[in-house]
Specification:
The structure holds two protein chains of two kinds. Chain A is mostly beta strands. Helices cover 5% and strands 38% of the residues of chain A. The longest helix of chain A is centred in the first third of the chain and has 11 residues, at 10-20. The two termini of chain A are 20 Å apart. Among the domains of chain B are: 53-139, Orthogonal Bundle (Cytochrome Bc1 Complex, Chain D, domain 2); 158-202 and 269-289; 218-266. In chain B, helix 8 packs across helix 10 (279-289). Chain B is elongated, with a radius of gyration of 31 Å. The chains are: A mainly beta, B alpha+beta.
Amino acid sequence: MKRILGTCLVVVCVSGLLAAQAQSPAPAGLTGAQIERPSRDSWPTYNGDYSGRRFSALTAIDASNVKHLSLGWIYDLPAGGGGTVKATPLQVGGTLYFTTPNHAYAVEARTGREIWHYAYPRNRGGIIIGNRGVAILGDTVYFVTTDCNLIALDIRTGAEKWAKEFCSLEMVYYGSVAPVVVKDKLIFGPSGDDLDQPAYLEARSPRDGELIWRWYVTPQKAGEPGLDSWPNLDMAKHGGGMTWQPITYDPELNLIYVTTGNPQPVVAYKNRPGANLFTASIVALNADTGKMVWYFQSSPNDTHDWDATQTAVLFDGTIDGKPRKLVAQASRNGWFFVLDRTTGKAIVSSEFIKTNWALGHDDTGSPIPNPAKRPQIAGALVTPNQGGATNWYPPSFSPQTGLFYVSATRAFSVWYIYDASDNPMGWGGTDRNVYSEPGQIKAIDYRTGQIRWSIPRYGGNAGLLTTAGNVLFGSAAGGIGAYNATTGEALWNARLGTGSVTNGPITYELDGLQYVVAAAGSRMVAFVLNR
Amino acid sequence: MLSHTRLSFTAAVGVLVAVSATVVGGAGGQGRGGATPPAPAVPQISNRPPVDEAAHDRGRTLWAMHCVTCHGTQARGSDTGPNIIRTRTVNFDRSAQQAGSVLGPFLKAGHPTQGGKASSSFTDAEVAALANFLRQRVNDTMRSSALFTVGDIVVGDAKAGEAYFNGAGGCAACHTATARSLAGIAVKYPPVSLQQRMLFPGGGGGGGRGAPNPNAVTVTIAAASGPALSGVLVEESDFHVTLRESDGTIRVVRRAPGMTVTKTNPLQAHIDLLDRITDTQIHDLVAYLETKK
């Protein structure tokens, strides 16, 4: 009971903090070098750094003291401000930058005070399901709108500098992803899978948004690699594979790792026999040219909208006693893959959650779909459901524990073919949910794919964060939770008043204080340790 | 661009703290700036733009006369002509405020027709009719389309379903003529809903008020010492279990070493079946349940 009294001083402490830090310094121009080697006092790109590990070297908050975390501040988005925050904020120069669909925000990282709010005034439409966030380079903040525009904003004022269309709303694309700065380029792609259109990843100029290179996910011309995995060029040209997930990047290898979406038509598969390359894959591209170096297909001939647009997480590890450069993915189809990130060769290929759709894996490590578990007119009972064993929310990898952490769900649904014609289009079918087991956070040993531990996740689907303090942050009942990264032991919960975490939590250190920031619905909350 | 300077209202937010568990209060707080002004009206491009039905029907007649041989009945192509559902002309036209405003110039520039009619000779009304016909074809491919619906799912063998119900499925152990009776179930639900509910009826939540939910998950909590508590499970968290006792009392129990928390789901037999049942057995069961009018 003593602790109750002790932590009730939160409000007083935080008020003092506000007074001391009322003035944020003007944000300095963010350089490529600062993105490549992030400082302790920043979170300068979607995943914190290029690796996608969402692992912070900060140790002020650790497994022994995390239970004393206190509320730092709250920022509530204005009504009509875009709704739920799914974006991971960037933190540069003491300011947080984040988005909701067609809105961008700058908020003081120490106090939660709003600096500016940009509401895109010319939106013509598109699907408002979520926006993953901003990219920053120099004194410019970049994000994409639902109607396919890349917007550049002045980092100090939020004033619009320019807008550049990067996909076609008319052709039923939309924008949702967070761009990622790689050297002198913005790397990102379009979203959308309602009409059968080709997906791509682009490099655009941070100066004016002009196109530098474009890599199409599926073959667009005769003779292109992967075409033999489609029945014909016409199907390949309209084969989808949207690049919904922010990319990761290895500066040493100069490779971008892009994860690609589901093929089209999404569920009715009759007119696209074959593996449908390079949909539902992890693909390594040369960062300068956009040329493909290797691919690994996570879901060959995907017929369940599972795609494979989960983060390709980069880390160095030891396999059979030898140091290896690795990339790992916990895929929406329920499988966990570890590949050599230089070559794309699979090292681990195993289920991280029990599924019923695969007949094992082939020599390359790709799962072999069971034809009997494809969608049927009368319905096929399949797990995972459309939501997947996991989804867009970011996983984490801790080099301290050697564990890969993922928010996982085991759910069943019945998958139906609606369009039984020989030439279906769009979706041509869908699933109807049956049952979902309670969510879990799973810790996977990257060397074997074995589940080290699995704990109940009482909160909703959310991203994860690990720190060198041996702490794992994720969602909890009605809010945020902290767990021992080694054992999974629950250490701390906080209700946030607006439900459980809806984005990926981040951490940074300012003035010697380590902050943990997460969003729940349209609320952004920061926690700190009292001095 | 909107720019408001607002005070953080942290200090105004009530903070309730339990051991290892912080609770942040409601939004409350002071002094927000004015509400975000509405954005100026910009014409919106719909995923499924409106179709003028009369024009569409005239368009269908024109389509049959001039276009169907190459592009097919649904504009998805044929052996002699391409699928045009995904083309720029069709989709920019369907996104335009006025149907035909993109298709018109395209046809004016010249395009083969099956009867040899010069495409440049279509009147504005004919172009608009064709444009509405094409809008509907694209709309029909969308998930929001009326065509986007389940087909005939009653394909199983009712006799085999009955045998499974009374045998391997174990359904008859719970569902009898008097208990959890399924009489009339086929009238109550359409087949697709019946199939889903048969697999898992849902409704397991038990936190609400009102009539007792027979499918609510119950929980029994046995501490290292003292009497056990039991009731309907309201919520679980890492540190607490919340239950509602039979007299309506809500209890929040902090998890502790040596405590056992045992949950009972009345629908567990359905859950267990999900890893066993085959699709054929599902379809057979539905065919059997469809006899229960």
